[in-house]
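Researcher: Next entry: RNA pyrophosphohydrolase (Teichococcus wenyumeiae).
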Amino acid sequence: MSDLPYRRNVGAALFNRAGKVLIARRADLGKGATAAWQLPQGGLDEGEDPRAAVLRELFEEIGTAKAEIMGEVADWLHYDLPAELIGHALGGRYRGQTQKWFALRFTGEDSEIRLDLDPHPEFDAWRWADLSELPAIAVSFRREIYNRLTREFARFAVPAA
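Model: Predicted structure:
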C-alpha cells in the first residue's frame, strides 16, 4: 500500500444562504447504505488550479457551479483507504487521496442543483444539512477530515448577511 501514491482531489463544502451545507447520497451504494452521504469532491487534473477545479467538480457532480469561494483549508488533507479497498477503489491505482477543501456560498436557487445532467450521476439525492452532521455521515476513513472541516468551516455555517 505504501508504494501507491495519493490521488490529488478537491472537495466542496457548499453552504446555502441559511448556513446549511449540501450533502449528497452516492448513487452506487444504494439508498439504504450506511454512510452513503458525502460532500462533493473530485479529482484534480494535472496542472489544474484547485480553485477552478472545485467549481468544475461542482458542475460535474451537482449540475451547477453557482458558487463563490469563501475560504479554504490551508493544508492538503489526506486519507488512506482501508485495506479491503486498496486495488479496487479509485481505479486501484491509489492508496487514498490528498485533498484541498473549499468553503463556498451557493449563489443559485435550489432548483438549479441538477443531479440528472450527467448520464451516469455520482449522486442520486441531495439535501441541506447542519455542518455538525458531517462526522456522523462520513465513512470511517474520511471521518477525521470531516471533523476538521466541521471545525475550520464553522464560521461559514451561519446565515448570509
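Model: Note for the record: The chain is about 15% helix and 30% strand.
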